Amino acid sequence: MLLFLKFLLAHILGDFVFQSEKWVKDKEEKKAKSAKLFFHICVHTILLLLVLFFNLKEYWLGFLCIVISHYTIDILKLYLQKKKTKRAWFFIDQILHLLFLVIATSFYADFQLSTDKIITDKSLLLLIFLLLVVFVSAIVIKIIITQWNPEKKKENDDSLAKAGRYIGILERLFVFTFVITNHWEGIGFLLAAKSVFRFGDLTSSKDRKLTEYILIGTLLSFGLAVFLGIIYLYVLNLI
Predict the structure, then answer these.
(1) What is the dihedral angle through the alpha carbons of 199, 203, 208, 210, rounded to the nearest 10 degrees?
(2) What does the pLDDT look like over 197-211, one tens digit per residue?
């Protein structure tokens, strides 16, 4: 595990700490011809040497595995990603890098991730309730409140695209977390904070229906998250 943590430290420093936005843009524009791509690989190489204390006699295979795979994955990402798939490729890129860190570590240590330890009753239960909080709750709320639909989106609406959806997901995740960790005071703080930010919209709007629509959506979102949190804890105690 110590070796993997060293590899991971070098990866985080190389990909997030010592890589500027200018380097990223240069790589995206010039791809394989970008000098910044080679600088990036050199930074990773130096960091790996440092965390390994330059002990390539023992770790040369893992060292080469990480450096070569990192360059190959970065090249594939640069040529395959499009503007619409950029976010997806960021996560794919990082998952592949981590996979090769695991492979490199396995050359020197018994680094096996047993599915028996990962896929348990408790982990599956948590996954199910997270899906309920994020996706199922959103559909339930939409079905309930669309019967009113007070006002269509205005032409000069300054809100971000899909911002409401992500705000709802995050607030339900926060509330669910507060419930299952027995931090109920956090729910009050979150509700108060959202009320402050929403106060301007509600007071500036002369449409009472819109105000009621927002309040119903907020209370439904919080209520479902609290309800699912309580049910999760109850079922967890039965396992």
Answers:
(1) -50
(2) 665 555 555 566 767
